[in-house]
């Protein structure tokens, strides 16, 4: 990382501008989303699914800078929260996945209503674009692969996704994160691993772009390479863009040199 470029890990702790409003999509305390709305223009809703290895110690706050930057570019943005894993937490299989399905399904109407109430541009009708980072990238890819036909997103941008759960478990990423999510290893929890697999079983026919840095140590790029190699046999609309000398957190940091690639990829998803 050049000396002049800020430390991308700062994005995890630097306070972001506050959202315009917070909407609720269900009864649990985590069934909420921060909403940021553009000042002018209209476009698709972008639903951001945050990472943090599905753990309760990480929440949507660290994607606030990304969401604010996208709103400045004219997107309506909703940062989806969901139940996560950890002591006393209620996430994991299947609760985390149920929350993503419920939240993505409810947010278009909720954000449109919030925009009207605030007198701000209402996002285009139709399904949202999903942007997911790390574990959120896994959830975005999983949602696209398993969504019912009437709820398929308009596109997916996965940033350094944990796209291969069995390999992530073998590598023991973040000290047992996949085991905490699914309740055990692949042999003991084979059914859960199969159900949580983000690989599509049929052609999705929706544009999907994966961005992954070659120097990512949190989520090795090999996971994305393997996912695209296997998914490409089913769906030829999945593209992997490898970013040289880019790590894990630059992809959610609007100050980074990699940010331009993120916005270009997002624009490429618009039909």
TrEMBL record:
Residues 35-228 form the BD-FAE-like domain. It comes from the Bacteria. Pfam families: BD-FAE. GO terms for molecular function: hydrolase activity. The keyword Membrane does not apply. InterPro entries: AB_hydrolase_fold, BD-FAE-like_dom, GDXG_lipolytic_enzyme. Transmembrane segments: none annotated. Keywords: Hydrolase. This is Prolyl oligopeptidase family protein. It comes from Asanoa ishikariensis.
């Amino acid at each position: 990382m050049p000396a002049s470029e800020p430390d991308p890990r700062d994005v995890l702790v630097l306070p972001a501008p506050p959202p315009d409003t917070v909407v609720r999509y269900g009864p649990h305390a985590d069934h909420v989303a921060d909403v940021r709305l553009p000042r002018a223009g209209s476009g698709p809703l972008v639903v951001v699914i945050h990472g943090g290895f599905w753990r309760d110690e990480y929440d949507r706050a660290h994607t606030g800078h990304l969401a604010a930057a996208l709103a400045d570019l004219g997107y309506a943005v909703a940062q989806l929260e969901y139940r996560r894993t950890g002591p006393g937490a209620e996430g994991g299989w299947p609760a985390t996945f149920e929350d993503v399905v419920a939240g993505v399904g409810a947010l278009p109407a909720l954000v449109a209503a919030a925009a009207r109430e605030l007198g701000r541009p209402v996002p285009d009708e139709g399904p949202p674009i999903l942007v997911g980072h790390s574990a959120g990238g896994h959830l975005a890819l999983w949602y696209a692969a398993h969504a019912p036909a009437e709820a398929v997103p308009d596109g997916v941008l996965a940033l350094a996704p944990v796209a291969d759960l069995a390999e992530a478990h073998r590598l023991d990423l973040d000290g047992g994160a996949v085991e905490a999510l699914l309740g055990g290893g692949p042999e003991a929890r084979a059914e859960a691993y199969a159900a949580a697999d983000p690989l599509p079983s049929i052609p999705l026919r929706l544009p999907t772009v994966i961005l992954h840095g070659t120097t990512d140590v949190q989520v090795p790029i090999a996971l994305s390479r393997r996912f695209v190699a296997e998914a490409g046999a089913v769906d030829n609309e999945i593209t992997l863009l490898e970013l040289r000398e880019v790590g894990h957190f630059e992809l959610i940091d609007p100050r980074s040199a990699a940010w331009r690639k993120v916005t270009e990829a997002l624009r490429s998803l618009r039909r």
